[in-house]
């Protein structure tokens, strides 16, 4: 860990002067009165200043270096995370602002990544409005009373108010001070992925009950996804209004859908979430696992950046996303268990393909696996940062 001490410096130096004006501008932009106004500005350049490498790449501007961060960069792969989390249940840890700040900062300090991802979970806003659920270690979110009817929707899901998640606002504000210019990514689960947990009652391989409800009971489906879209948008707004400079919408399980069903049953609600935060003028990243066949649709839902999983050759992914949006990804997370020369060669292939995109944010194709060696990630960050931007 110590030999890496210089890295965050290296990563923050180029962006520090530019990051401040942006940050200062945020609270004004986030004024409540703007909620209704939705001028779409995917390419907005606040104050005309070149942004951080991460923000520049998201907006399709030329960054000083290829920016890199990792999904699940904070988490069980880090010994310092395991230490802080000892004896504290996952969902409780998300309600303690000091712990959230510390855990979010850990990978930024260790790796000098170009963005921080807010430490929380997609089910936090659901828990905050009273849904009886927990995160079971090694399993994931488990819901006590699954939602399967309009009555369930109405009795269990209400709108999310900023006061329901005041600990999120507090943690984001704390982070903005600590991060010193490194952008913070706020996030939310997308309606379909949240719906899957709520309908199935827990993680599912085939999403059978979810799809069954989708086909059989469109009224309940629309009521449920409509309400989840509002909750997701509200959760993103809270984070941006407190200072997050980008958002990622995780539709992790959307890849289980055919394109036709995605378009009809899911895309309108993802689009609603993305549209509901357009006025905040922060880059919106849209990501799912196994979504190779849906990339065009996910881009079309209104994202500025589309996350590509590793099953898709990035050059193909870029074609599917189109020339109007940036891409994020897409090294296979298990490549980090390969010898160093293979990691580098595979990273180079991603970098080379990414250089043809409108913008490229280097990432894995999904989250860091808990068994990953943090030193391998540290070497990967250095390798990406050394790549020359043409
Ligand atoms: C599907 C999903 C969930 N949560 C999330 C998603 C979408 C991203 C994805 O596709 O992976 C999102 C999430 N969850 C967490 C983060 C924050 C930080 C980060 O990415 O670095 C983010 C962005 C923390 C977490 N969320 C969770 C952990 C691990 C729990 C722990 O450390 O005790 C972390 C660090 C728990 C969780 N929560 C969820 C799962 C599947 C799990 C893993 C269960 C397990 O294997 O134990 C639901």
How would you explain this protein's 3D organization?
With 390 residues, the protein is an alpha/beta fold. It has a single domain (66-386), classed as TIM Barrel (Alpha-Beta Barrel), CATH 3.20.20.210. It has 17 helices and nine strands. A seven-stranded parallel β-sheet has the order 1-4-5-6-7-8-9. Strands 2-3 form a two-stranded antiparallel sheet. Helix 4 packs antiparallel against helix 6, helix 9 crosses helix 12 and helix 10 (191-200) crosses helix 11. The structure holds coproporphyrinogen III. Coproporphyrinogen III is lined by residues 71-76, 85, 90, 117, 119-122, 135, 137-141, 187, 250, 252, 289, 367. It catalyses: uroporphyrinogen III + 4 H(+) = coproporphyrinogen III + 4 CO2. Pathway: Porphyrin-containing compound metabolism; protoporphyrin-IX biosynthesis; coproporphyrinogen-III from 5-aminolevulinate: step 4/4.
User: Any idea what the CATH architecture is?
Assistant: Alpha-Beta Barrel
| Proportion of residues in helical segments | 40-55%
Q: Identify the bound ligands.
A: coproporphyrinogen III
First CA to last CA: what distance?
A: 31 Å
Cross-sheet strand order for the largest sheet:
1-4-5-6-7-8-9
Q: Helix- and strand-based class?
A: alpha/beta
- Taken together, the total number of domains comes to 1
Q: Main beta sheet, described? A: 7 strands, parallel
Q: State mean pLDDT (0 to 100 scale).
A: 90
| Count of DSSP strands | 9
- Helices, by number, come to 17
Strand content: 5-15%
Envelope shape: globular
CATH class: Alpha Beta
Task: Give me the CATH fold name.
Answer: TIM Barrel
GO molecular function, one term: uroporphyrinogen decarboxylase activity
Subunit structure: Homodimer.
Site (Transition state stabilizer): 121
Catalytic activity: uroporphyrinogen III + 4 H(+) = coproporphyrinogen III + 4 CO2
